[in-house]
Amino acid sequence: MFLEFKKEVEHLLKKALDNASYEYKELDLEESEHADISSRVAFFLARTYKKPPEIIAEDIINHLEIPAKNTLISNAVAAGPYINFYVNDSFLHKTLQRIKEGIETVERKRGKIIIEHTSANPDGPLHIGHLRNAIIGDVLARVLKRAGFDVETHFYVNDMGRQIGVVVWGAERIAFDETKKADLAVADVYIAANRLIEENTEFLNDVEELMRKYEAGDEAVVRKYEAVVKKCLSGIQASLQRLNIRHDLFAWESEFVRGGAVEEVIEELKQKGDIKFDGSGSGSALLLHLEGIEKELVIQRTDGTSLYTTRDLAYHRWKSGRCDRVIDIFGKDHELVSQQLAKGLQILEVKVPEFVIFAFVSLPTGSLSTRAGRYISADKLIEKIETRAYEEVDKRRKDLDESKKHEIARKVGIGALRHDMVKVSPDKHIVFDFDDALDIEKKGAPFIQYSHARACSILKVAEEKWQSLIQGYDTSLLHEESEIELIKKLSKLGYAIEEASSELKSHLIAKYARELAESFNLFYKDCPVLNTDATLRKARLVLVECAKIVLSDVLDVLGIEAPKEM
Questions:
Q1: Over the stretch 406-464, which tens digit does the pLDDT of each residue have?
Q2: Which of 50, 292, 315, 544 gets the most CB atoms within 10 Å of its CB?
Q3: Residue 160 in contact with residue 254, Cβ under 8 Å?
Q4: CB under 8 Å to 472, separation ≥6 — which residues?
Q5: Which CATH architecture has domain 118-362?
Q6: Does the pLDDT at position 280 exceed 60?
Q7: Sheet of 37-39, strand order
Q8: CB–CB of 386/249 below 8 Å?
């Protein structure tokens, strides 16, 4: 409902500005502590019309007419240079009615978006750094779907890099441990193979020969590569599924090489780009000068093989033809790659992706490295947080059987992990701390999940006591401050989704979820629900039911399960 209120404010404000003969570029509407929506448009008009902004604000109000009927606005006032708008009782009633009836007002068919996220090298298991990529990408995909977009998620499989060559080379000499999860067994071979190569660098020639044969399509080598990569991917997918993450497509970069797409890109860049030849004759490497980037981009090695960025250009050209927008989730270490990719695609006259660059995540223990064998796998992390969550559940709920305790611990643990990966802006570095993530007082996922469980508990008690619990209710009885604030907060899920989708900021949903849970708990503290007269009880139970619905919805957008008890 808040989006509808905002649109109505926009319409009336534009009409008032036109009536007052003001020319404007934007309305500058925002939420405010002092109003439901406030406009700062008078500040900008003051510069143009050489008048004090408070005079302009008063003039706009004098030209603004609020309809007598069919409106969500109660009144609008000039507060100094600000123009403040307030919702009416109809807004509050319609908010609860629509939530109860499951009515959505989301604009549909807004175009197709392809989001690429995770895309970890298939040389071992996912670790904590990959998890931030995967969870940011997954939450953004959920946000954009809820905002009305057709979303397809991709995992771009880097099956041609040197790391994979090392694993394939190592697998010819070292047997996989079949008792281990597939991606962990691949990591063991990768680590052992790197040690062998460090002891004898001549082995690198064998690895490079494998890479050349794979790019050329040697059938025997292709089979070896596919076996290793698929083995590792099966383990990665299992980890992602534990986190409630699934990809629609796994795109292998080798497909673009052997299908001719990379060669087409190289030939087109020769025609359209500023190309230099580093070397002489057939042994020349191809270097592409990119405007604004000092270092030239190597698009083909001296031996004729392609590089990651060249293959990435081919992949992006292919997927840009399948959608309206392309979004890439990249780590901070890929900032230069994203710049090179954007410049290269501009030369190829292909739409440039929208990049979400995230800062690194670490544990209090320090840095990680798969190559050196210094990493904590996603599975270990999940197991550790679920164990910690179980300890908390066991401490609080001695009445539950073991299977129920473990079920709640899984939901709470995964929820805490997912929420903490998206609760702050992607550009900020985070240190993941188990105790903080699981602490209800810290107002993370467990706090939000507990609010949902509390709402479920209230409704369950009411149903057991009064059977037909909320028939014939009157929401006009809800006039306490915490009741009104909760209804207003419930109205803003669609607004939060729209904001997060337009700015590509998943942390805005986590922020909204926390604020909603805070608002619900304040209402619960201030307003008795079960121990009040029947008429008011019914109205408050409707509010509790609506809170439960929206808490469940926002948790779903975050990819977090909403437990009925904790």
A1: 999 999 999 999 999 999 999 998 887 777 777 767 788 999 999 999 999 999 999 88
A2: 544
A3: yes
A4: 538
A5: 3-Layer(aba) Sandwich (3.40)
A6: no
A7: 29-30, 37-39, 82-87, 73-79
A8: no
Distance CA 566, CA 449 (A): 8
Q: What average pLDDT does the chain have?
A: 91
Rounded-to-integer distance, Cα 437 and Cα 385, Å: 9
CATH code, 2-87: 3.30.1360.70
> In this structure, what are the phi and psi dihedrals at residue 102, rounded to the nearest 5 degrees?
70, 30
If you ran DSSP here, which 8-state letter would residue 366 be given? B
pLDDT band at 375 (very low <50, low <70, confident <90, very high): low
Instruction: Give the integer Cα–Cα distance in Å for 271 and 264.
Output: 11
| 3-class secondary-structure state, position 192 | helix
What are the Cα distances from residue 105, in Å, to 22, 126, 147, 490, 494? 32, 38, 10, 14, 8
Q: What pLDDT digit, counting tens, does each position of 225-275 carry?
A: 999 999 999 999 999 999 999 999 999 999 999 999 999 999 999 999 998
Span 378-557 CATH architecture: Orthogonal Bundle (1.10)
Query: In sequence order, which residues have a C-beta less than 8 Å from that of residue 466 and are 6 or more positions away?
Result: none
Is residue 471 over pLDDT 80? no
Residue linked to tokens 């596919």: 226
Contacts of 11 (CB under 8 A, 6+ apart): none
